[in-house]
C-alpha cells in the first residue's frame, strides 16, 4: 500500500519545505535552469542546491546538464503518489461519514 511506502514519505518530506514547494510550482510552468530558479530565492546558490538535491533524490524533479547549464524538469508522474494517497484518505473519510449519516438518520442502505 502506497500510504506506508518510503516513496510517499520522501515526497512529503520534500514538499514540507516552502522553498521546495515554490520550486515545484515554478517548474510546473516548464523547465528552468538552476541559476534562473535560484535567482528567485533569497539564498546562496549552495543553499539552493540543497533544495534541488532533496527534490531530485525524492524523484520530484530531474536535472539535465548541458555544458555549464543544469536544467531542472518537474516529474509530474511522481506527484501521483501524493494524489493516490489523498484519494484513498478521501474515500475512507467519505465512507465513515456516510456510515455516521446512516446511523444518525436511521437509514439502512444495505
From TrEMBL:
InterPro entries named in the record: ArsR-like_HTH, HTH_ArsR_DNA-bd_dom, WH-like_DNA-bd_sf, WH_DNA-bd_sf
Keywords annotated in UniProt: DNA-binding
Pfam families: HTH_20
Entry annotated with the keyword DNA-binding: yes
Keyword Nucleotide-binding part of the UniProt annotation: no
Record field: transmembrane: none
Superkingdom assignment: Bacteria
MF-aspect GO terms: DNA binding; DNA-binding transcription factor activity
HTH arsR-type domain location: 1-94
PROSITE patterns associated with the record: HTH_ARSR_2
This protein's name: DNA-binding transcriptional ArsR family regulator
Lineage: Bacteria, Bacillati, Actinomycetota, Actinomycetes, Pseudonocardiales
